[in-house]
TrEMBL record:
Subcellular location: Cell outer membrane
Major location (coarse): membrane
Gene Ontology MF annotations: siderophore uptake transmembrane transporter activity
Keyword Glycoprotein attributed: no
Top-level taxon of the source organism: Bacteria
Keyword Zinc tagged: no
Name the record gives this protein: TonB-dependent receptor
One Pfam family recorded for the sequence: Plug
Domain TonB-dependent receptor-like beta-barrel residue range list: 361-884
Membrane topology: Multi-pass membrane protein
Domain TonB-dependent receptor plug: 122-234
Length: 937
């Protein structure tokens, strides 16, 4: 035999043996009713092969060498299966039946843990919202969706943004303008924003659409060691990633709300393989929304686009992802009410439809950040908040061999939030000197003329000469102004910008029964804030009109108290111009120790260092006769606050150690007990510097709040009944509290000195699902709790900036405000063949509206109803109604109906002395009815 023939023979034999060593695996997956399941995710380890079932429930793996493997099947709403298979023949046929997982307890979760873990065996309280549940609601923003998660308090009365979210009484610093203070809002494992401050919160840059596959929520517990400066909890929105064949969906939503205000929205998502082991998912939305309450402008418009590209290989994967958000929305202010015992609307307003926002107009207000430039800011309240977010990221997961695994997630984002809206909507009587002196004029007494700023028609002419000696004003001509008052409101202009880098690096090593995880989280943000407040003259009525106001005394020059749009006291109410650099660096280590097949323990430690460095302008009224334009007859620019050239610097570092210890005991394959104790910390956010130091040096850093939490729970996953129940105790210590105050005499807005306080909460959370008969499911979740202001002091400024009459009020032992004793969701679903129906009831118990316990917000219920019909294989229709019975429930309270008031001022003594006074409340949003057409391909 020649050499060439011999070589050819060897090659043929080699490839013959190689080909015969490759095996074929065929399989089929069905549910318990015998229906085939499409889209089941199937993986084989340790070779890291993956696929999904086709429309016939079939799957196939080729070129698998002989050996022993673990095959795992997972699908949304079904229990995961992991079993060992032996590949020894040329062809292997497999068949699987997936059981319903009523509460996703068999699902893998990645939130609140350093490694993916079955929810049933995690040693913390975890809740999951998956696609089927997300399709049942049309949330008015991110916060509104999260009220479906047990134990989560949500105030979403303001609309899509500017909401409050917290759990287990960890709430005190979660103010309305920083309502996510203790919790981390995440997308795919990283925070949406690194830092927070007034009017700059993560929900500004987050929207929900079809690119969200599921939401994982951790309440307290392990958040102390797994989140960046957010020990109160994590809400992680996970995106769709892998589709093994081209498919997608388009949702067209149309509906009406309130007084026939319309909503139009289009959502889309598409996924497909784009090469060998390469996959892409892309999607987004665009919507035009008139809003639930009445405004003369479109309340929200805009949308976002997201995509990710992922490459799988034998040892892991690589993912690139991006988001572009460009969106306009707004937020509702409060409504006036009377009757402290049973609040009812006042001054012709409605809990259902009144918004009291200024109407849209185009004004131009001087911007005095730079004294050497004559710059102006356009101001139009119809724009609300314009949020833009451009994010790019890359994530890797790489097996390094010998049981080592490396994971890294990095993203860069550029964020802009521009506010052009109104703040406050208080009643200001025409007998109140504030109505005139707030313009910035020296002595606006005499004959005052109010014109409609839009039409130019004179609405009223009054003589206010007697108000300084206690006499009433007098109408001279024209009709009266509604309610003999104007609205105490401010034209609020804010520029927020931030460039952020966030990275999380994790290294895992399995050693015997230990899974040890260590790594580092890093975040860097370069932020700037400019805030300017001017007064806005407007009628005090359900649909406010802007007022052009002049002082027209006989034989005297006409003094313009406002410009032609109704804006007055240009930039004279408040001024903030600040810059800050934030760095957050943390290192952590965690040991998940499997002591026996039933008992596991995990211990975690986190060291975090947060550095804030920045500066803040000092300011003073502009000193020039006649104000900014030098014209003594234009009073509206006389009081502008401008920088003095001096800056107050801050440069502080916060270091702390957090720890958490948990344990899980597996009773059997369907139930487990768990326990955890955590000690977390919350470093101050940038609002500590921006809000609390007005023209004074920033000499000391803020207090680090300390959070201790303990929980003990049980989880059970049965065939027709599943539940979790968690008893918890939480303590929040060193809470810095300062009030927002307004002094009428000097037209000055200020914050009171900070008081450090403590709260304690005990309670029981539960989550359950029950399927008594086929196709019919009950869901019930909620919390009972008792929250106390263990140590609580409030600084009372007495309504003036002078400190001589100040006092500190002690409310220790009172009930913690805005924490209901009972809160739950009860719902049911019916699904068979082409039709599905659901009905949900959300109950919010009574809540004290301030720490003085002077006023309680009544309990309320809201109901939602929906049905879905499958028209054909590709097309379905969905009808949803939220707040079905148009509940008038009150979600929030702002105190007395006067400019600059706050909730803490409404003490029992105040209410007894002022039983007929009006006050400001925030009702829940009105009924919304939507028809959604869904096309799948």
């Amino acid at each position: 035999m020649s050499v060439n023939k011999a070589l050819l023979y060897v090659i043929v034999i080699f490839f013959y043996n190689f080909s015969t060593a490759q095996q074929l695996i065929n399989g089929e997956v069905k549910d318990v009713e015998g229906n085939v399941l499409e889209g089941v995710n199937i993986t084989i380890q340790p070779i890291n092969f993956g696929t999904t079932t086709d429309g016939y429930g079939k799957f196939k793996f080729q070129n698998v060498t002989k050996g022993t493997y673990k095959i795992t099947l997972s699908h949304i709403g079904y229990k995961m299966i992991t079993q060992e298979i032996v590949v020894s023949q040329k062809k292997l046929s497999l068949s699987f039946v997936l059981e319903d997982d009523l509460m996703n307890l068999q699902d893998v979760v990645v939130t609140g843990t350093f490694e993916p873990r079955i929810q049933l065996m995690s040693s913390t309280s975890v809740s999951v919202l998956k696609t089927n549940m997300l399709q049942q609601v049309y949330p008015q923003g991110t916060a509104d969706l999260l009220q479906n998660i047990p134990g989560t308090f949500v105030d979403a009365s303001a609309g899509e943004v500017f909401n409050k979210v917290y759990t287990r009484g960890i709430s005190a610093s979660a103010e309305d303008d920083m309502g996510w203070y203790y919790v981390s809002l995440q997308e795919d494992g990283l925070p949406v924003t690194l830092s927070q401050y007034a009017y700059y919160s993560p929900d500004l840059f987050h929207r929900i659409d079809l690119m969200t596959e599921k939401v994982e929520a951790i309440k307290g517990g392990s958040a102390a060691i797994t989140a960046m400066n957010a020990p109160g909890g994590i809400y992680n929105f996970r995106s769709k990633i892998t589709e093994n064949e081209l498919n997608g969906e388009v949702h067209l939503t149309n509906g009406f709300q309130g007084n026939n205000n319309f909503l139009h929205k289009i959502d889309f998502a598409i996924g497909s393989p784009i090469g060998k082991n390469w996959f892409i998912n892309a999607g987004g939305h665009y919507r035009i929304d008139d809003g639930s309450r009445d405004t003369d402008f479109t309340f929200s418009k805009g949308g976002q686009f997201k995509f990710n590209v992922i490459k799988y290989h034998n040892q892991g994967h690589l993912k690139f992802y991006a988001k572009y958000l460009n969106d306009y929305t707004n937020r509702y202010t409060g409504v006036a009410a009377v009757n402290w015992d049973n609040p009812t609307p006042a001054f012709g307003q409605s809990f259902s439809s009144t918004s009291l926002l200024m109407p849209g107009f185009n004004a131009s207000i001087p911007d005095r950040r730079n004294l050497n430039q004559n710059n102006f800011n356009s101001f139009n309240p119809s724009k609300g908040v314009h949020a833009k977010d451009f994010t790019l990221g890359v994530a890797i997961s790489q097996h390094l061999g010998n049981h080592w695994l490396l994971r890294n997630n990095f993203k860069f984002s550029k964020k802009i939030a521009n506010w052009q809206t109104s703040i406050s909507n208080a009643f200001v009587s025409l007998n109140n000197p504030l109505a005139y002196f707030i313009s910035g004029a020296d002595f606006p007494i005499g004959q005052v003329v109010f014109k409609d700023a839009k039409s130019g028609l004179e609405l009223a002419r009054i003589n206010n000469s007697g108000i300084l000696v206690g006499e009433s004003f007098q109408y001279l001509s024209g009709d009266s102004l509604p309610n003999d008052a104007i609205m105490g409101t401010s034209a609020w202009y804010i520029d927020n910008e931030a460039n952020e880098l966030i990275n999380q690096f994790i290294l895992e090593k399995d050693i015997n029964n230990h899974s040890i995880t260590t790594g580092m989280s890093m975040g860097f943000s370069d932020s700037s804030l400019f805030t300017q407040g001017s007064y806005g003259y407007a009628t005090y009525e359900p649909n406010p009109r802007m007022l052009q106001v002049t002082l027209k005394n006989p034989d005297a020059p006409i003094i313009m108290l406002s410009d032609t749009h109704g804006i007055s006291n240009y930039g004279g109410l408040f001024y903030t111009n600040a810059n800050a650099k934030v760095s957050q660096i943390a290192t952590f280590i965690n040991d998940h120790f499997k002591i026996t097949d039933r008992l596991t323990v995990d211990l975690g430690l986190r060291y975090e260092s947060i550095h804030h460095k920045g500066n803040k302008d000092r300011y003073a009224p502009f000193q020039q006769d006649g104000g900014l334009d030098g014209n003594t007859n234009t009073a509206y620019d006389n009081g502008m606050l401008t920088p003095t050239g001096e800056k107050d610097m801050f440069n502080f570092t916060y270091n702390y150690i957090s720890y958490s210890a948990g344990s899980t005991y597996k009773l059997n394959n369907s139930s487990a007990l768990f326990a955890r104790f955590s000690h977390g910390n919350k470093a101050p956010e940038l609002n500590y510097y921006f809000n609390n130091f007005s023209n004074v040096p920033i000499l000391k850093k803020g207090a680090i709040q300390k959070i201790k939490q303990a929980e003990l729970g049980i989880k059970y996953s049965g065939n027709n009944f599943s539940f979790t129940s968690t008893a918890f105790w939480s303590q929040l210590k060193d809470i810095g509290i300062a009030n927002f105050e307004f002094e009428q005499e000097s037209n000055t807005i200020f914050y009171t000195p900070i008081q450090l306080n403590t709260s304690t909460t005990v309670g029981l959370e539960w989550e359950s699902t029950y399927t008594p008969i086929q196709h019919f499911t009950f869901r019930f979740n909620g919390v009972v709790q008792n929250a106390k202001a263990t140590k609580w002091r409030i600084y009372d400024a007495g309504g003036t900036a002078i400190t001589d009459d100040d006092q500190v009020m002690d409310y220790s032992g009172n009930t913690l405000p805005f924490t209901p004793n009972l809160m739950f969701n009860l719902g049911n679903e019916y699904h068979k063949n082409k039709i599905s129906i659901f009905f949900n009831w959300h109950y919010m118990g009574k809540r004290d509206a301030n720490v003085a316990n002077g006023f309680k917000l009544p309990s309320y219920s809201t109901f939602s109803l929906g049905t879905k019909y499958l028209i054909n294989k590709h097309l379905s229709a969905n009808f949803i109604v939220t707040n079905l019975f148009n509940s008038k429930g009150l979600a929030n309270f702002y105190g007395a109906n006067s400019f600059g008031a706050n909730a803490n001022g409404a003490t029992r003594t105040y209410i007894e002395a002022n039983p007929d006074d009006s006050f400001i409340v925030f009702p829940v949003l009105q009924r919304k009815a939507l028809l959604k057409l869904i096309y799948n391909f």
